[in-house]
Specification:
The chain is mainly α. 62% of the residues lie in helices and 5% in strands. It has 25 helices and 7 strands. The strands form 2 sheets. Strands 4-3-7-5-6 form a 5-stranded mixed β-sheet, with helices on both faces. Helix 1 crosses helix 3, helix 5 (193-226) runs antiparallel to helix 6 and helix 20 packs across helix 21 (528-537). The chain starts with a strand and ends with a helix. Residues 397-437, 447-493, 512-552 form the UBA domain.
Length: 638
């Protein structure tokens, strides 16, 4: 952040009591990680003699070990001894829990509470694994003082399913569980009825938001291949790095769309600082991405960005230690960026001509790696990562006056930031870059509209020949939009011909074929029984019935014979048919609302995920560098 062209400094808060408390907590966490690392390297088991006696009390040997490690770390011996005793007690507690689990089958779950709570955020809870997720949620709410309906539980990086047992969901002894509050209240200290009722209502609303998100994304993903008029019907599309639509195998298209949709929704919540709601969306996105093939994930950067967003979300929730595979996710992101962008960003440079905007992703990657290394007790690696992030921040920092100048030319603040980073801060070059990109996107949109228009014309052409809209769409999809190939597909796949556009329950309610049309087919030389069956399948369409019979030697193929038999039995009209009409409009309104909520959060700019003011990153980089430097200075003093 700059003011009047000059770099503003982060205000030093070292004199405040809160700042000193945070520094002590950060330093203690670092020492805990470092000591745990030493114990692992030296293969020392603190829960066994000579460090723990038969009564599970501390042994004299712990003091000697604390002296050894304090000399190695060059820090206070008493502080090291105190932390090692905490580690020993937890190890003894865990060992007792293991023995208890073996004999009774009662598992221990490590529960991580929200950061706002003043009490110890890491707690142990005992439970049987045959209980349901709903029962566990109820137990956690009762034990730690939550309202059951406004918390979510995340275990093994997945939302706890309320209707399934813990065992069915892969929950094991000593697993970590994170508690998310759907809505944090600043008035928790006042436990009156009004506040509790408000919290319950807010929780219900937010749960509905999550359910609407899921339904809206499913509707949009299903529409992608079925939409006829894109101007009138919203749907999701997948585009490459230039903005052009790309074809994805049908088997993976829906999963990829749902993954990207959940990711965008999660990012929208992140922008609003609603991390507790963002995390379930991001975890759902991760689940759907895992259904896509590796080759596909290696060609796009979406999966890498998602890994960063998940780790960032855990960090902002103050629960980074609850994410066991944070290091794995960050390595995965780094490797995915390498495959997608190429060595030294060569592939990215070839496609886009620059890589300035993508450097924002690497800044966050280095920052999260630095934070992770710090909390793992790797001070040198943390400093190296954080320093890389700081250098990238200096490179990517944008003078607000330059953004203002570009906005005066009619560009948005987002376009200005992205353009300046793509052009190394040169205002003139950025203006040309943005204008050229606008023209390029306009041309791409024009071409995509023309492509969709041709598709609609082809569908109408096939409909004019007697095929249903569904059959026409399916054949054109298989033929990659080629009308002649679509006709060949329809000719060789008659089972597509009887696909109709009405609701499934009305498909079977068809009148018997007219005798006049049966006579027409008989006059052409077809058997009367075969003619009647064909007309029944194709709803009295003589042309399609004749084509089918000719192509199959005067008979219906076996699969169409079955459909003819199904349609021959005409069910009676149910009194509930008319009653369903009124509820249908309500369902349609709810679906429209769900879709609109999704569309509101889909960013208009295709590079929205690369746009960041970096204000949060600047503060966090300075904060963690100060932690590392404090440890270094403390070591020198000792």
């Amino acid at each position: 952040m700059k003011i009047n062209g000059g770099r503003s400094r982060i205000r030093a808060l070292g004199g405040s009591r809160l700042e000193r408390l945070w520094r002590r907590m950060a330093q203690k966490k670092y020492l805990q990680s470092k000591l745990t690392q030493f114990l692992r390297e030296d293969k020392i088991q603190l829960w066994k003699p000579p460090y723990t006696d038969e009564n599970k009390e501390v042994g004299l040997a712990l003091k000697d070990l604390a002296k050894k490690y304090s000399d190695k770390l060059e820090c206070c011996e008493n502080e090291v001894e105190e932390i090692m005793e905490e580690i020993r007690c937890k190890a003894v507690e865990r060992g007792t829990g293991n023995e208890h689990y073996k004999t009774t089958g009662i598992a221990t779950i490590e529960v991580f509470l929200p950061a706002r709570l003043k009490k110890d955020r890491k707690n142990l809870l005992e439970t049987h694994l045959h209980i349901t997720g709903r029962e566990l949620r109820s137990k956690i709410a009762e034990t730690f003082g939550f309202q059951e309906n406004y918390i979510k539980i995340v275990i093994n990086k997945k939302q706890l399913q309320l209707g399934e047992t813990l065992k069915e969901q892969g929950v094991t002894h000593n697993v970590k569980a994170m508690v998310l509050e759907l809505k944090q209240s600043e008035e928790d200290v006042r436990k009156n009825v009004q506040v509790e009722e408000e919290k319950r209502n807010e929780a219900k609303l937010e749960e509905k938001r999550i359910q609407r998100t899921k339904r809206g994304l499913e509707i949009l993903a299903e529409r992608a291949e079925m939409v006829v008029d894109p101007e009138a019907t919203p749907y999701l599309d997948i585009a490459n790095q230039t903005g052009r639509s790309i074809r994805i195998p049908p088997s993976e298209r829906k999963a990829l769309m749902l993954a990207m949709g959940y990711h965008e929704k999660g990012r929208a919540f992140l922008k609003r600082k609603e991390h507790g709601i963002a995390l379930p969306c991001l975890l759902d996105a991760d689940r759907y991405f895992c259904e896509c093939c590796t080759e596909l994930l290696d060609t796009v950067d979406n999966y890498a960005v998602l890994q960063l967003d998940i780790v960032w979300c855990y960090f902002r929730l103050g629960q980074l230690e609850c994410l066991d595979d944070a290091e794995k996710k960050l390595k995965l992101a780094q490797e995915c960026f390498r495959k997608c962008y190429g060595e030294n960003h060569q592939r990215l440079l070839h496609i886009k001509g620059n890589c300035g905007k993508e450097k924002v992703l690497f800044l966050r990657l280095y920052l999260l790696q630095g934070i992770r290394n710090y909390h793992s007790g790797n001070g040198e690696e943390a400093y190296e990562n954080l320093n890389k992030a700081r250098q990238l921040f200096k490179e990517l920092y944008i003078d607000p006056s330059k953004v203002h100048n570009l906005m005066q030319l009619g560009f948005s603040a987002q376009e200005a930031r992205l353009g300046l980073r793509a052009c190394d801060g040169n205002v003139d070059h950025a203006a040309v870059h943005i204008a050229n990109r606008r023209e390029e996107l306009d041309q791409i949109k024009k071409e995509e509209r023309e492509k969709k228009k041709r598709r609609l014309e082809n569908i109408n052409h096939l409909k004019g020949m007697g095929y249903s809209m569904r059959a026409a769409r399916q054949a054109l999809h298989q033929a990659a939009g080629n009308l002649e190939e679509a006709l060949k597909i329809l000719l060789h796949n008659p089972q597509l011909w009887w696909l109709n556009d009405s609701a499934p329950e009305s498909n079977n309610r068809q009148q018997s074929p007219s005798q006049e049309k049966i006579d027409q087919l008989v006059y052409m030389g077809f058997d009367a029984v075969a003619a009647k069956a064909a007309l029944r399948v194709f709803r009295d369409n003589v042309q399609l019935a004749a084509q089918t019979l000719v192509h199959n030697g005067g008979r219906l193929p076996p699969d169409l014979q079955l459909s003819a038999e199904d349609s021959s039995s005409t069910p009676s009209t149910s009194p509930s048919d008319s009653a369903g009409t009124s509820s249908a409009s309500t369902d349609e309104d709810m679906e429209t609302e769900a879709v609109n909520e999704i569309l509101e959060d889909i960013p208009e700019h295709e590079e929205d995920y690369l746009d960041s003011t970096l204000e949060d990153e600047e503060i966090i980089i300075a904060e963690y560098l100060s932690y590392v430097e404090n440890i270094k200075s403390a070591a020198k003093k000792n």
